[in-house]
User: What shape does this take?
Amino acid sequence: MARKDEILSSFLKHEMFTSKYELKKSDIPSTVREALASDIPIVKAIALVIEGLESPTPISDPALNTQIRQYLQEKAL
Amino acid sequence: MIVTKISIENYLCYCGIKDFELSDGLNIILGENGEGKTKFFEALDWLFNGNDDGLELLVSAKALEETEVGKSLRVQVSIVVEQYEEKKIITKSFLVKKLKANECSISNYMLEGTEENKSGERVQIDGKNLLDRIFPFQIRKYSMFKGEAELDIFKSDGALTNLINLFSDAKHYDKYSEKGIFLREKAERAVEDSTKNDKKNESLYKKLESDIKIAENDKYKLTVHLDSTDEEIRKLEGKLQAAESHVKNADALETINKRIKNIEDRISDLNGKIDENYTTSLFDENWIAVNFETIHHEFAEKISLFSIEKRKQQSEFDKQKGIKEGERKAKAELLNNSIPLPIGVPSKAHMEEMIKDQLCKVCNRPAKKDSEPYNFMMERLKEYLTSQTHDEEETNDNPLYKNDYTNRLVNLSVSQEDNLKNLRGVRTRIKDLFKFNDARKKDIEQLNTELDGEKAERDKILGNSSIAEEKLVDVLKNYNAWQGDLKQRNHEQLDYNSKMKIVLAELKAKKEEKDTIDLKSANKSLIKTRAILRDIETIFKDTKETKFDEFIEKLQGKSNSFFGKINIESFRGTIVFTKRIKGDKSIVDIKLQEDGRTFYKPNQSLLTSMHISILFAISELASETKEENFPMIFDAPTSSFGENKTAEFLNLIYETENQKILLIKDFLSTEKKTKTLTIKKEFEHVKRNKAFWVKLERPFDPNNLKTINTQVITL
Amino acid sequence: MENLFDKWKTKIPKYSEAHKDLFNSLSQKFGAEGEKKINFGKHFSTNYELYMYAFFLGLYNEEFSPIPDTEKKTDFSHHIQHWGSKTTTLERKDFTNLQENIFLAVVAKTNVDFIALEKGEIKEDDVVKTLIQTMESYTNGGLILIKEKIDENPNYFLQSTSFLNMILDSKLGKKKQEEDVE
Assistant: This one.
């Protein structure tokens, strides 16, 4: 498995997903690509972060912030 | 990767080229102290890590001596490794040109690499590069150890981070944790700004912000306090445990010292009671008069006789006096036995008047001449007149004895008589005193025997303890002080913890209050975003921690698995890794625990077993991560073990994978007669894949480096 | 009433110069008690103590040895009445009472015509002189005995009981012991 997928899986193992977000096992994606297509904001947000940091040219902080906030604001609305 | 051959040329005590053909598994190199063992290790270390400094000090003196002036010699250390079925060679060398007898010039060193593929073709490549590929620095760090002390890798705080970076994918999660914090802080700021836009909330908000700041500050301070208290407590518990083994001795020592002092006091007491001032007592106790009774009787008799004689003569004398006395008596009868008036009464004048007038003027009766009254008065007048002229005669009693010495002498005799009773008791008193003194002396003798016994006991206790008496006494003093300290620290810890609870609660409340205001005033979407980012931060942080913990658990598991195999002390406990936060770093503490109780001061061989187990565990982790094995090189790792334990240990690590190269000084003995160095029979029973013996060529002069040359013997 | 004792007490008895060494080695002239005495290595704290001891020793052994005219006499300038007075030190007890014992002894052993004395036929001073002579003679005898003992065994007096033993083992002492046994 590619590293970023492993990292994603590690994060998604957190109990918050099942308890607070009430996600079912089936809702939890196993790859970053899947996660990027997810409707669940927190999942996609995490995927975005991973994608940005694991790329050969890691994303800068300000850029990351902008990207994530853009997504979330849009989704939150 | 396996090292198949190590060659050392003209490096320090290795004159000429000396080869070690190693195999996989356990390679043992034996050597007496000072005969080339450690130089072997240093040669490798120089190959891997050395720099340009002091190259001239590395040259073999013997080799240099044997070189002609004007000629050069080479100093070189090289290894041949096998990696992925390919042979690779790394060589580090420099040239030495002999200019004069004791002068030479040194070139810079070169680090060359050679790769030889399966078909035998050789390719030169950059040495440094090759070295990093075959034996990366970080791996080397955990593979080469000189001495027992170096085995404790967790002494430094950065060790855990290092290991994780090397062998755990936990290293990837560090940055996520950072980013999580970063994103959340941005979101918080956004919400705050939005809230502040609403003027109604400004002041309250500001106050809350400052309250939170203060609370965070308090939290930080308390954390620092707690951290340092925790550390104090840990240190104290360690000290106490170390002292505990001594304390049992120290307690016993104190008891005995008390007993000894008690006995000594009693002896001194008794000595004080003994009175042997016999000569002085002759006077002060009047013992000198012990034989005096006889003398006294002599004196008493003499005085008595004298007194009798004196009284005899006196009564004779008095008899004579008595006649005169009779005369006086006759006179008295005239007065009808009544006591006559004194001589001068009535006065002379009165009497002459009465005689002239022939009349007693006292009773007014006539006193005619020659009548009785008249004659009485005449006689009285005559007496008076006579008394005036014959004064001396009147008082001329003329005693027999002018002086009376008798009185005093008799008194003396009588008073001394009383004292005789006392004198009779003197002999008995002297005897009693002798008895008393003897008894005391016997008592002292007995006490001295007791004292000797106690002192022997004390010596035993001191003999059993590994530290000197004054230190033992100190230990007890410190032990009690530390117990007191520990109690106090525990109190403090409780105190801080409860304070911390309050601060955390306060912090939570304030933050919730702030959140409430935010929820009311701020832009809804900002709040939603913030919520998600808060969660993401938590997820990232938690996951990172989990990964760390997973690594540590893995490390612990592997360490204990090795520990179980190579544990020579038959210690029943386990190695426990505990993570704690120091400042912003995670560091790990290693403890030995048995039945839940921490073993604070294990002995050196137990520590060594523990450390080596951890190192093997790390080596295994490295193998798993890099998907490759690396050799482990130890110089004298078991100096504290003694020969038997070392043999046991070697047999146990023989069973582990990995190439191991161990340098040890055991199994060598010097034959008394011939003074030759030989290998003991016991070594035959030690399991190994290969063994070598490094020893100095004999004869050699330890003060003359030019005679120093180590030989390598393959066993 | 006259007191012969008081008169006698005011005298200073003498000893033969031949025994000067004994006084030097066994006693401390101006007095030393306790530790001091031990430090000087002396058995008797004062000269008169030795004098008294020698007197009793001579008395108990019936060693009446008048000082020969050929020997010079000397003294240590300490009147009998002060002998045994230990007011200056706490370590010792007062033994002035022993003066009485000495007096009784010399009176017992001297031929004095007390009758004549009391009658005034002989002078008090002369009697006192005779008493002193008796004292000096017994003391001389005692000193000779001590000297003989040292000559016989120089280490005899190193024991703490030696002086005591000489008194207990004297002629009179032995007689008394026999009596006690009976």
About this structure: Chain A touches chain B at residues 3, 6-7, 10-11, 13-14, 16, 20, 41-42, 45-46, 49-50, 53, 61, 64-65, 68-69, 72-73, 76-77 (CB under 8 Å). Chain A has one domain: 3-76. The mean pLDDT of chain A is 87. The first helix of chain A runs from residue 3 to 12.
